[in-house]
Amino acid sequence: MNLTLVPYGNAKMAADGTVTCQHGEKECEGNSWEQCAIAHNPDPVKHFPFYECLEASEGKPTFKSAAEKCATSSSLDFAPIETCFNGAEAKTLQKKYADLTPKDHQYTPWVTFNGVVMPSHGTFLHNLCQKWKKEGGTEPAGCKVLEAVAERSPAVW
Q1: Distance of alpha carbon 50 from its chain centroid, rounded?
Q2: Which domain holds residue 85?
């Protein structure tokens, strides 16, 4: 399974390239820090801890200080992330992530499986297992565990 984080949410990009985020400028700023970290550390094993840390920080006291702290705690070099954020690369990444965002998503976070946006109801694992069954193939071990749990407690499923 491949994991691709797309920090863009429900933002909108105007024809002139201006991005407006659902929750305002701070959200756009956080997205840019995350996009730059991902661009300069493409392996999810490396950038996911940064992403998780920055999300938890809520950009406090500032996104720059939070990004620097998260880079340090995630063993990432902050310098290229900061250079990206302060330069033209950040605008290029906004466009890239806008293009990666499905036009038919209705919520965040959204998950795609084989190019199809998964439903917002149910758990991630439930939806993944349902798609896996429908598409065929060997079901992940977690699906069998979840099915056994669901038999005892249907609300989990």
Answers
A1: 11
A2: 12-100
